[in-house]
Amino acid sequence: MSEAKPKAKVRAPKINHETKAFWDATAQGKLHVGKCDDCGEHYYYPRPLCPFCFSDKTRLALCSGNGVIYTYSVTMGKEPYTIAYVTLAEGPTILTNIVECDFDKLAIGQKVKVVFYDTGEGSAVPMFTVA
Amino acid sequence: MSIKGKAYIAGIYEHPTRVALGKTLPQLHAELAKGALADAGLSKDDIDAYYCAGDAPGMGGIDMVEYMGLNNVRQIDSTETGGSSYVLHVNHAAQAIAAGHCKVALITLAGRPAADAKEGVMFRMGGETPSSSGFEAPFRPSIVNMYAMCAQRHMYEYGTTSEQLAWIKVAASHHAQYNEHALRREVVTVEDVVNSPLVASPLHRYDCCVITDGGGAVIVVAPEIMKKLKRPAVKILGAGEAPKHLMGGKVDLTYSGARWSGPKAFEEAGVTQKDIKYASIYDSFTITVLETLEDLGFCEKGKGGKFVSDGNLISGVGKLPFNTDGGGLCSNHPGNRGGMTKVLEAVRQIRGEAHPKVQVPNCDIALAHGTGGLLGSRMGSATVILGNQDS
Q: Which of B6, B294, B306, B385 could form a disulfide with B98 if both were Cys (CB 3.0 to 4.6 A apart)?
């Protein structure tokens, strides 16, 4: 996993006791999804009860940081940005941004890898760039 | 228990304003209620049930029944599913009437986002959730890009084009030219739409609905009340509703909750897609219409682009006249919530009171569908099927 980039202008997530472990790990450059030890499903966003089988035997599972673009959209304006859903190698599809690449050359199915942006508040936001 | 034939829509009203400077939110709700009562030929004291959603101020129903001086209300329901709420409320009101809990139910929607913007008031979504606070907000989701991503995926999977999406706006604009209250009355072409500026790829400005103030109201009544009134009877034949969301990460943005609300409504009404003479389809964006038409079974999944092309949604031209008031794309999307106006135009069509240029001949059965929330994450879908007295 990559080091979190300093001084990036990113909106810090609001964190509560349910999401703290996830966000603490992002500051170390680690991306997790939820994993259910009863039904075996990986899921996102992480939450204490499995959204598939309602088991409480759940934990955070470390991700490789690799995925493919499921869909994306470039929002126009002074500083265009790309919002996307990325399907992780572990299964779940997650909302994110695609950064540090030519937006005109993006395509669904393209391989991407995670890159973290430090919020300066003890967390880093997982975004993706072309692999 | 079925609601079929157990309740009727007796009164409707759409606020003529599109920018409500000088009017407060509760005032708009009250003006709308008054308009719908006048249309039905009922009085305020006849109302014994009140329905509203998240647009109503304060505690919603409680505050509004006081403000409007509704003293005989014995049931309130403020189910909130975004812009689809009011289609769902028609269903809930019919259920309550069928169960004998009430006889005259009032539903109102009002909003003033255009006036708020001019007055510097920011639009805010409701309370915090894991999705809204941490796992989504940092990535700057907007209303437009959360629909644009659905269009992008639909194009990828099914070959849908921007030109096909544009036909939806073109059809709406053909209808809006006859609506004196429509915000945008100019007829546009496919070229106009695809050449309008990109807002969030692949959606252009003309793929997006208007932002307007005002609202609408509906009065749903028991059969014995309808018999005493002079207005044409609009029978509620069937309804369905369903939320749809991100499924724990098994995301599929190529369909909406209409996949579930539609079949339920058709089954209850005992009709098929071929029986629908007119359809009000929620049109926050062109892609919303396309996916909904597929999910409601008007065409095969993935064939929506072909279905909407060449004016197939234009009244008098195509096979499925839609949004003959100009819809949210051209006429009105009050309070950023378009479900109410979908019901209103379907009622006008059944009554034969749509503009003569867009009135569907012998419109005995019509459908109205609402999509609330975000097609790109979580939504509430609601479908209602209406008919005339003989249906």
A: B6
Q: What is the DSSP string of B177-206?
A: TT-TT-S------HHHHHHSPEEETTEEGG
Q: Nearest chain A Cα to B140, which residue?
A: A83
The reply to whether B363 and B228 lie within a common domain is no
Looking at the domain assignment, is residue A74 inside a domain? yes
Average of per-residue pLDDT values in chain A? 93
Q: Say how many domains are in chain B.
A: 2
Residue B264's alpha-carbon distances to A49, B260, B278, B347, in angstroms, are 30, 7, 18, 20
Contacts of B137 (CB under 8 A, 6+ apart): A11, A13, A14
Interface contacts (A, B; CB < 8 Å): 114
Q: Which domain holds residue A99?
A: 20-130
Q: What is the rounded average pLDDT of the residues A78-90?
A: 97
- Considering only CB atoms, B141 lies closest to which of A13, A95, A125, namely A95
* Domain CATH for A25: 2.40.50.840
ipTM here? 0.93
Q: Is B175 found in the same domain as B91?
A: no
- pLDDT band for position B211 (cuts 50, 70, 90): very high
Q: Is A72 within a domain? A: yes
pLDDT of B124 above 70: no
pTM of the model: 0.94
* pLDDT, tens digit, 9 for 90 and up, residues B290-311: 999 999 999 999 999 999 999 9
